[in-house]
Amino acid sequence: MKKLTTPYYLIDETLLEKNLKIIQRIREISGAKSVLALKCFSTWGVFGLMQQYLDGTTSSSLYEARLGREKFGKEVHAYSVAFSKKDIESIKNFADKVIFNSISQLMNYYDDVRTMKLGLRVNPGISYSHFDLADPARKYSRLGASDQAEIIKAAPLLSGIMFHFNCENDDFKNLSTALDLIGQNYGDLLEKMEWVSLGGGLFFTKAGYPIELFCEKIKNFSEKFGVQVYLEPGEAVITGCAELVTTVLDMMHNEIDIAIIDASVKPTC
Amino acid sequence: MKKLTTPYYLIDETLLEKNLKIIQRIREISGAKSVLALKCFSTWGVFGLMQQYLDGTTSSSLYEARLGREKFGKEVHAYSVAFSKKDIESIKNFADKVIFNSISQLMNYYDDVRTMKLGLRVNPGISYSHFDLADPARKYSRLGASDQAEIIKAAPLLSGIMFHFNCENDDFKNLSTALDLIGQNYGDLLEKMEWVSLGGGLFFTKAGYPIELFCEKIKNFSEKFGVQVYLEPGEAVITGCAELVTTVLDMMHNEIDIAIIDASVKPTC
Prior knowledge:
2 copies of one chain form a homodimer.
Chain A: E1 8-11, H1 13-30, E2 33-37, H2 47-50, E3 56-59, H3 62-72, E4 75-79, H4 85-91, E5 97-100, H5 103-113, E6 117-121, H6 148-154, E7 160-162, H7 172-191, E8 195-197, H8 211-225, E9 228-231, H9 235-238, E10 242-245, E11 248-254, E12 256-261
Helix pairs in contact in A: 1-8, 7-8
């Protein structure tokens, strides 16, 4: 291998492929499609490998959507906590689906994107917080629409719904209970939809994760409401597959030995 | 004024000049020179104004040193928590002074930079932590040399010393006590030096800061040890002079009204 200049991330394709094969297996058993969350991982040097196993990408900004279209291909989901008018005019060039964060954004831009597949992010609400759901469900969250009556009214404009309510969740039981609650609370809405994205933050590539139970749960959810399920893995795809390679520039001693490397996660003082 | 695209920082030159005039006054009364900490502020659009009042820049990496040389001019101090061999070869093109973080770095590169003015960052030590000194004095700190015997041995290679031990410090009494302790502990060392940098983090542009007392203290310190004092203001130069101008892209309601703007300090989920 060519000697590289540090610092760099060394990605092990063998390990990456192992994760990707788990995702492929999930698709085969459960029917759920997986789109890579570019916010989490956007190193396009390995997109060639990834696109063999994933169905496309999901993005949280215009430039991520463009990256997905130009470097990954396949399906491009475009979400943003708020699109500007300019974003919306450009997004048509890159995305297959546009997922809005609010009903007001959907209404504002509906005429611009009505020919595309439109989705709405729905906040499953603070009542799930005792299941240790991640931040998006916290009080005053700005992430997703929360007024159920308004959401149902907007349903005819939508082909899908996105719930993103996990982060590093390796607890299948927690997910299972949350999905049951979502089914109970949003069943009528889901039945009107073609697809539902369950977001990212599910750690199904972790050793010991009950893949079969997970797939069964997803398949049942999908069949019960007649929706294509999407997953948006980010960390689950890449975790354990990369190392940060650095050079030790100096060794200091201040009670303990301290190595100074040519990389940092925070600025120094 | 031309209509700008948000988000942008709007810098008020009148307010900035007010801060700069305080720094000029400090130089006139105390004799202390001030170099802008580029790590804190590097918007070179206003360097033309700033260079009329400041003596140059200080940097924490090779590229900052280059920015200081090419866009600000005057004196360029170059510090790094660890220079690589390549950094050191380039730094000669940009810097007037090179300030090392450790004696091992000084020794490693002494032959490369012996014709330049060399400084050493000294960690004033954890014994000052009860004066609420900032992070650099914490246990196991990697910021600065801490072995006094070794520092004294290295003194013949140095023309100056840098102590950086404050952060948003608006408490003159605290600074005064810390300077007395530094004088007591490092007096022998300081007397061998041409210059000493007291670092950044002093909030002397805050309303009500006792500028006269501060100047007197600095002047006495400078005269007592026969050293040119440098200050490295960053935040003190720009605080209160700029606003982040944004556009509201969406209004949501989730118990409270929430404005979504086209800027953020952290990524969203």
